[in-house]
Write a structure and sequence with these properties.
With 226 residues, this protein is an alpha+beta fold. The protein has two domains: 130 residues; 73 residues, no CATH class. It has eight helices and six strands. A hairpin with a 5-residue loop joins strand 4 and strand 5. Bound molecules: cobalamin. Cobalamin (B12) binds next to helix 4, strand 6, helix 5 and helix 8. Cobalamin binds next to helix 4, strand 6, helix 5 and helix 8.
Length: 226
């Protein structure tokens, strides 16, 4: 079965996942399998978290080391099979697939001063969970060309909100960040999500709910402690 983006979106909906744009890759994009079309899949808003929580409440993924990754792989590989596409994932590396580079080809996102990509609506509160690779060339809407919100953000509160100044001009001091969130002073980053990320005025209504934020922050801290 071939597909149009609305069909992909409909199949993703029960999983709370959304289409994050698509593009026609060239060799330079280094997409495995050299597909004619790559459609990025991700989350923004509460729906993915709710679907994942429902699966866990039903007793699934209780023994998973990376339950969200396992849930995503199950959901997306089923959608890919329905569409005759291959599925690719941002996790499982190294080597890591260049999802952030692909995302910039697919939709109006650009690096924020924090490193994570900023979206004109979702701000810093969105992520990429996978991609569908199609051998055939799908019709795609024109890429959204809205500008990077940071270019007109005079104050850049994201750069002054981190209590340990983990974010520099072109760097992210991971040990400083992990040190902070491993101590009581970092309790609010752990409970509500990174304070620098929350300081961004764009997409405040998309800030992850506390349980979702805790899940990612705990996974991040755990991974860095390994
Ligand atoms: C390794 C990795 C990390 C490492 C190092 C990040 C780094 N300095 O590059 C660590 C563990 C530190 C990290 C942390 C986080 N990460 Co991370 N990470 C990745 C991963 C798995 C691979 C990145 C990579 O090396 N790609 C390979 C190169 C070749 O790809 P690329 O697209 O060309 O590279 C781009 C990035 O390196 C980026 N970049 C450069 N500097 C920084 C700094 C930061 C902080 C980030 C996030 C990216 C980044 O610029 C490049 C060009 O666009 C990606 C998933 C993926 N496959 O892309 C997620 C990813 C980049 N991470 C993501 C996120 C959200 C985070 C966290 C905010 C999540 C969290 N709370 O746990 C934290 C940041 C901590 C905080 N303060 O909250 C998201 C970003 C989504 C977005 N909106 O852009 C991604 C895409 C995963 C996803 N599922 O969507 N991450």
């Amino acid at each position: 079965m071939s597909a149009e983006l609305p069909t992909v979106a409909t199949l993703l909906k029960p999983h709370g996942l959304i289409v994050r744009g698509g593009f026609h890759p060239t060799r330079k994009d280094v997409v495995p399998g050299e597909p004619a079309t790559l459609v990025l899949i991700g989350n923004a808003g509460p729906h993915m978290w709710q679907a994942f929580e429902a699966a866990r409440a039903a007793g699934r993924y209780a023994d998973s080391v990376n339950p969200l990754d396992d849930w995503v792989r199950d959901a997306l590989s089923a959608v890919a099979a329905q569409l005759g596409a291959a599925s690719l994932y941002p996790f499982g590396g190294p080597p890591h697939l260049p999802f952030q580079r692909w995302a910039q080809r697919a939709e109006a996102v650009a690096p924020s001063p924090l490193g994570v990509l900023i979206h004109p609506d979702y701000g810093l509160w969105h992520a990429y969970r996978g991609a569908l690779a199609f051998a055939e060339r799908l019709d795609l809407p024109p890429r959204d060309t809205r500008p990077r919100p940071c270019d007109t953000c005079a104050d850049k509160p994201c750069l002054t909100a981190c209590p340990v100044n983990a974010f520099g001009a072109d760097s992210y001091d991971v040990p400083a960040c992990v040190g902070h969130i491993s101590n009581p002073e970092g309790a609010d980053c752990m409970a509500l999500g990174c304070r620098a990320r929350r300081a961004c005025p764009v997409g405040q209504e998309f800030i992850y709910e506390p349980a979702h934020a805790v899940f990612h922050m705990a996974a991040f801290r755990r991974a860095q402690a390994d």
